Amino acid sequence: MVGLNSTTVFDAYWRFAAERLAMYTRRLSDPEGPWTDDPILQRFRFTNTYRACDRVTQYLLKEVQYRDDRSQAGDEVFFRTLLFKIFNKVETWELLERRLGSLAWSSIDLNEVDKILSDAVCKGLRIYSGAYIMPPPNFGKVRKHSNHLMLLSRMMDDDVPKLLTECCSLREAYQLMLDYPGLGPFLAFQYAIDLNYSTLLDFEERDFVVAGPGALDGISKCFEGPIRMTAEEVIHQVAESQDGHFARLDLEFNGLLGRRLMPIDCQNLFCEISKYSRAAFPDVAGSSGRTRIKQGFTQVRAPLPEPFFPPKWNLTAPISTGDHQLSMARGQQRLF
């Protein structure tokens, strides 16, 4: 890596990427498992190598954005995507659909949405995912979700869907989202990526990335000494050099049906190796100083739904893992 002094954790970064993708493909062909011999991956929960493979993102793609009966009008795609992503919780979306039917901007009453969610909170239900920290924008409402619904209403009134289609790059779309209260750099970027999965936007993902707090910690563990470049520059360099590192470590990695790791995926992998290294490399403190992995993993022996990816990616071949590939991949007992 040009201008960077890598550590042992950086090699584990690539092994993690290869093994976590292999786990995903193994589970698709073998719901019973086990899907890995690595004790840390068996014990703790980690996101997929590719963000688009994660359960909640798969639901966003299949049920919220691209389901056949969903309108692909720009304002409707934007509304559904943001309403889902604000809470980032499948159960919240399904609660609203059970009560209100198909959710559409043309017919929605956000006051009714507010009432349903307030009732759920009063019953002790969690309506937000724990994946992201969701600071509420200040629109004068008492409840967090009420302020978020006001934010969504403001964005619709400002015709943000149309303004997004007038952007020339993912960076411009991100900057537009960042202008709204409650959306810091990390969330604005995540939302821009989610919208870029949809029919609303079609920008090149290779061109832009924003590093979140977890990625910053992962970068600090993967490289030692002064880093004289931004975290985003590090992520871009890692994405561009991925083939060489998989070859250097003799790792079989064919990507997601041939799709290479994008900067958003490399950003997420830095976050995940930050967590993984707390168990694998406890002496590597990183920038955050965190030492525990909070989320444990419980294996559920059930088939994964058939994967779905944005049609514009043209990933049409089936994902499967042959017996020979499986046995080769499982020969690695640990990632370090």
Notes on the protein architecture:
With 336 residues, the chain is mostly helical. 51% of the residues lie in helices and 1% in strands. It has helices at residues 8-29, 39-43, 55-65, 74-87, 90-100, 110-122, 144-157, 160-165, 170-178, 185-197, 213-222, 231-240, 242-248, 263-280, 323-329, and strands at 5-6, 223-224. A two-stranded antiparallel ribbon has the order 1-2. It is globular and about 55 Å long.
Blueprint of the fold:
Elements: E1 5-6, H1 8-29, H2 39-43, H3 55-65, H4 74-87, H5 90-100, H6 110-122, H7 144-157, H8 160-165, H9 170-178, H10 185-197, H11 213-222, E2 223-224, H12 231-240, H13 242-248, H14 263-280, H15 323-329
Antiparallel strand pairs: 1-2
Helix pairs in contact: 1-14, 4-7, 6-7, 9-10, 11-14
